[in-house]
Amino acid sequence: MERQLDDRAVEFPRIDDRLVTLPARYAVSVGDGSLVRYDLSTGSAVEHRFGTSESPGGPGEAVFVPSTSGPADESSGWYVGYVYDSVRDGSDLVILDASDFAAPPVARIKLPHRVPYGFHGNWIAS
């Protein structure tokens, strides 16, 4: 059964990689200057906006990094992704707390170069 979550234009939906082929509660998609986390159980959404009108931020897809091994808890961990800063023509590696998705980033690491849109990655625990 197909279900539309909302009218936002989003792309690159990701779930916790440990849940591929299993039911997942959250999916995070790239929106216009934001990441949108959809609660697939309730249909609600939370948006994390990047940048300001003076310095817009363009995120790429976010990867979920669990805080522990074992059974999946999709609200215990971090979302990690690149955000392009057009003012300085460079990218940041941004880390968001999964338990407070709309809050300011836990960390923002300025990279010396731009990471191109479409760069994909996965988290693999050691």
Task: Outline the fold blueprint.
Blueprint: E1 11-14, E2 26-30, E3 34-39, E4 45-49, E5 57-59, E6 63-66, E7 77-85, E8 90-97, E9 107-110
Antiparallel strand pairs: 1-2, 2-3, 3-4, 5-7, 6-7, 7-8, 8-9
Query: Quaternary status of these chains?
Result: single chain
Q: What percentage of residues falls in helices of 4 or more residues? A: under 10%
Provide mean pLDDT, rounded. Answer: 86
Report on the biggest sheet.
Answer: 5 strands, antiparallel
Unreliable stretches (pLDDT < 50, length at least 5) are: none
Number of domains: 1
Radius of gyration (CA) equals 14 Å
Q: Could you spell the SSE succession in H and E letters?
A: EEEEEEEEE
Structural class: mainly beta
Number of strands: 9
Approximately how much beta-strand content do the residues carry? Answer: 35-45%
**How far apart, in Å, are the first and last alpha carbons?**
36 Å
Structure characterization notes:
- The protein has one domain.
- The chain is globular.
- The N and C termini lie far apart (about 35 Å).
- The protein has strands at about 10-15, 25-30, 35-40, 45-50, 55-60, 65, 75-85, 90-95, 105-110.
- Helices cover about 0% and strands about 40% of the residues.
- The chain is mainly β and about 130 residues long.
- It is built from no helices and nine strands.
- Strands 5, 6, 7, 8 and 9 form a five-stranded antiparallel sheet that branches. Strands 1-2-3-4 form a four-stranded antiparallel sheet, with no helix packed on it.
